[in-house]
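[Discussion] Sanity-checking designs against the backbone

I'm trying to build intuition for which residues belong where. Below is a structure token string of 108 positions. I'd appreciate it if someone posts a full sequence so I can compare it with mine line by line.
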């Protein structure tokens, strides 16, 4: 599984989001605030905007699925995939043993 390595620590992300929130009133739009602050922390504006929007969803200011709910969904999807795989293996094993039992009774 290829996962992008996080270049930015959670502390840096929180600080950047806090900076945007604190200085939002100094700019005509959220995007203008993000464009001004992003170079100061060393990321592109779209990345910082994603962090701000994610924080807004997590705090209930914006509709959407929170980070905790997103993680729970991922966990349940992994579990579901694993259970489906196990179920498929059990079906194949059951069919194999049923055929072996049938072959044994026919030969007797």
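Best answer:
Here's mine. Compare freely.
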């Amino acid at each position: 599984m290829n996962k992008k390595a996080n270049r930015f620590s959670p502390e840096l992300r929180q600080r950047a989001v806090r900076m945007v929130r604190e200085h939002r009133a100094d700019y005509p739009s959220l995007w203008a605030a993000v464009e001004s602050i992003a170079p100061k922390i060393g990321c592109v504006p779209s990345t910082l905007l994603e962090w701000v929007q994610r924080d807004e969803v997590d705090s209930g200011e914006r509709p959407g699925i929170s980070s905790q709910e997103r993680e729970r969904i991922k966990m349940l999807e992994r579990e579901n995939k694993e259970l489906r795989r196990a179920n498929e293996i059990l079906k194949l094993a059951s069919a194999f043993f049923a055929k072996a039992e049938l072959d044994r009774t026919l030969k007797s």
